[in-house]
Every structure is written in C-alpha cells, then in structure tokens.
Amino acid sequence: MPVKSNNGSAVNSFARAGYNAVVKRNSVFLTTIFVSAFVAEMAFDTVSDRIWDNLNKGRQWKDISAKYTTE
Amino acid sequence: MASLATKLASASLNRTFVTLPATASGIRTVFNRSAHHSSGDDDHHGHGHHESPATPSLPALKTTSLNSNRTFVTVPAGFVQQKRYNHSSARDTTQIPDFNKYKSGSGDASNRAFSYFMVGTTGALSFVGAKTTVADFLANMSASADVLALAKVEVDLSSIPEGRNVTIKWRGKPVFIRHRTQDEIEEANSVSITELRDPQNDAERVQKPEWLIMLGVCTHLGCVPIGEAGDYGGWYCPCHGSHYDISGRIRKGPAPLNLEIPAYAFDEDNKVIIG
User: Fold this and answer.
1) Nearest to A33 among B106, B113, B120 (CB)
2) In this prediction, does ipTM exceed 0.90?
3) Which residue among A71, B63, B83, B208 is least enclosed by CB atoms within 10 Å?
4) Burial profile B219-236: b = 16 or more Cβ within 10 angstroms, e = fewer
5) pTM over 0.80
6) CA-based nearest distance A13→chain B, Å
7) Which homologous superfamily does the CATH classification assign to the domain defined by A10-68?
8) pLDDT the model gives residue B43
9) Rounded Cα–Cα distance for residues B12 and B9 (Å)
C-alpha cells in the first residue's frame, strides 16, 4: 500500500510556517506559551463568569442590590 | 513453548548452566534440535504445532557432568558458528511487517507542528494551574472584603471649621485631622528643615495644605498627644514631653520621628477616605 505523502500540501506549508514562526527559537516558543497561558486564563474566566451570570440571572446581589440600597 | 518452559524450569531446578550461542536463531536452533531430535525435524517455525515430549532433555548435546548438582553443557561448534545473512538473502528470518497502514499521510511538517503544539499546550495549561494555585494561596493570606471595608474610614471635612482639630478612630488608632489656617500653613513652611530631628518639608506631609491628616500616636512610646498644646503650637505628648509642631514634626523631647501620615485620598465632594 503506497503512502500518500502530503508534504507539499497547503496545510503542510502552513504548519511549516507556524513552526518557523513560533517553535524554532526556544525563547519565542516559551514566550508564546506564557503569553497564551495568560490569554487562555482570561478567556476562560470571562466565559465561565458570563455563563454563571446567565444561569443565575436575577438572583445575585448585583442584580437586586438596587432594591435594597439607596444611592 | 511448553517444552521451552519446562526446560527452563528443570534447568533452574537442577542448577544447570548452559552455554549457548547468543543469537536468537542459534537458541531457536538448539531448542528445536533437542525437542524434535527423534523425528529429525529442522523446521524453524514449527514450534507450536508439535506436541513436545513430556520430559525433554538435550540428547543431541554432549553433556559433561563435573559434580552432582552442576552440569555444564557444551554446545557443539556447529551451532556457534552462525552463518551471517544479509537482508536480501534471509527474507525468511527477517520478516519486517508492512507499516504503511500506520504511517501518517499528513506530511512531516504537520506532524512536527502538531507535536510541538501539544507540548506547548501542555506547558501553558500546567502554567495556568501552577499560577492559579499560587494565586489562591496568596489570596487566602490577604484581607477579605469585609475586613477591607472596615479598614477604611470616610470623614466629611465640611463639618470641620478652620483652626479646629478632629480625632477619629481608624483601625483602633486615633487619627488627627486639623483644618489649618493660612497663618499655620505659613508657619509650617517657614521652618528650616536643617534644624529638624526628622527633616521633612511640610509639602511632603500633606496633600492639601489646609488639611493635616496624621496618626495620633506618639513615635516615642505610643501615647496619644494632646492637640493645640506644647511649645510649638502643635501637639504635646504628656507621657514624656515630646513637642510636635503644626505640621506634626518632632521638635523637642524624646520622640525620634515625626507623627506618621496614613494613606488617604480626597473624595470629590469634600470628603476624605483614610485607609
């Protein structure tokens, strides 16, 4: 069974470009890892907060505080 | 296989030391010879199909008994001298399976990029986990929201007339607030700081010159000084006689430092938040 190689395909050249841009230098690779860790954490926190607020709409203090406090 | 197992077991029971050629095909040859000696079978791959004798021995090999429990078996020279084959002429013994089914078809660069992507993702997620753990422990140590709310005091400054002192309690300690007159501000600025024990400009000690806000704790031994008293028109500590001027700076007596200035901020509508 001959193996069909995709070494010249568009996906492969994209992967090579990504490798050369990110992984080739270790400093760039590590920086990318740490930066993307912060970005991923912020994204995760934002999304999970939004989901939580949506599920508990009208039941949290920030939703009902206007009824009990003046100002 | 059963014959091989029994042979190994009996060999270890009788403490038999067998000197065998180190190649796999050599071992296979020796065991084949011994197992199928009677039939003279030389088939290399016929192990599993034949019923082996119940107690197989090595009859083809010359056995030299040296003592009762140690037997040395000398393998004949013909087995040691293995003929070396190269790959083209020994296809039957070097059957390399076809791995094409398992080979990736997505190209070398894609595979490499995917591997490093997984490595990087693992690293990033581990870093997030480690950072969150550390942050949680640190957040556990810091003050909670209710404590922080109690730690701030809001004072309405519009109720304090000019030239008056007000003492409020903040975190269990007195805080002096003085609405200074223009004369007092000029007096505080006229002092040359070279003659001070703890040299400080008046501008360093106030945010707005008319409001002097400082901790009412004597820097000597922690008494509360009395306002509008002492030789310098400021505060006087009755415990050991420290005199502070109208900027709260130590001028006379045993205290080493000026009265401490807490962190505070002015609100827009004439209020100050201490803390």
Assistant:
1) B120
2) no
3) A71
4) bbeeebbebeebebbbbb
5) no
6) 7
7) Cytochrome b-c1 complex subunit 9 (1.20.5.260)
8) 45
9) 5
